[in-house]
Amino acid sequence: MVVSTFMTEGKSYYNSATNNFGGLFPYPGMRMAGRYKAIDGNLLIEENATMATALTIDTMFINSSSYRYQIKLANLNNKQGKTRSIKNPMTGEKTTLSSIEWGLVFDYDVEGNYYAVVLSCDNSTPFDDITDQRSMTLKVIHQSGTDTRELAQATITKGVSLEDEMNTLSINVDDRSVKISIGKDELQEVLETTVARPTGPLQVGYLVGAGSRVAIERAVLTIENEKQVAAKTLWTREALDEYFAVSADPVEGYWKYLDRDMEDQWLRLGGRYTLAVVRSDNGYDIIYIDGAQVKKSLWHEGMLKGHMTKTVFSGNYDATWIDATMEPIEKDVQATIENGVILTMYFPVFKSQVRFAKVLNTDD
Predict the structure, then answer these.
(1) Global confidence as pTM
(2) Average pLDDT of the residues in 70-92
């Protein structure tokens, strides 16, 4: 449900040709030894003709524990069969590279340590062969000083450009993990790994490996608001499934939207929610699973949707509810459970109620 209150969603910051790539291109026409960066039409182009990995860090600082970073980019030197030679300016010797890297940087701290999602493409056989298959390797690394540590890796063969066309690379970062998605036309989640988040203000950006020529079409940083962060819990669908499998409490489990009786001028439906109810110290927590329609982008699986506190009357609870805009409704909210299968949330001030049915078959 959503009441007539207003809350600012998490802010998004864009870098594209529209704003001259803002925080990613603070020095127009920048040239450095072995590196060149410029805006070409609607693209930001950066070429790295050195043997060292080049980083471009956005000037925006992040102070939230949760954020999302999406960047649409291509490596123009990633054409199949193409090699790149790097000349050492000191010795004149050339190094030929057949596999080059590019990607995004996140959690860049004040000491220059960072995490990165690094992309590269290779063929399964070095020669033209009918069994040859090209694939993309996606690695998550942590760079601390001169120490590079690989945290996770995935190999992709479908749904992405394996040559020099654009892919969208996306990360969702919270206080304990990063989820990574990539795709040419549609994002697919390919990897999740835990990260030890640094403290203090952090930054994001992109990575141009030796011999790479990276084109950026746009980059979007979305920083979650404080109420989104506060609503997060440690519950995941997998953890809930395991917990409910051994629970003997008839109240605990999944509950799906059944019907409503609402005064639309006071309260309107925020979604046809699926919820999980789990025991807590003084009652039960209500956990969001899916079904949000109003402010859908605010809600993610495992967020706190409300709470039920036991009363002296069996099956009756004092309750709180977090509406679609993440504003709490705390006064005069009650909940009842009838016959162990119907959960009703009452909002008498708004002359409304919503009912949920117990999911008895967990496969549903």
Answers:
(1) 0.65
(2) 83
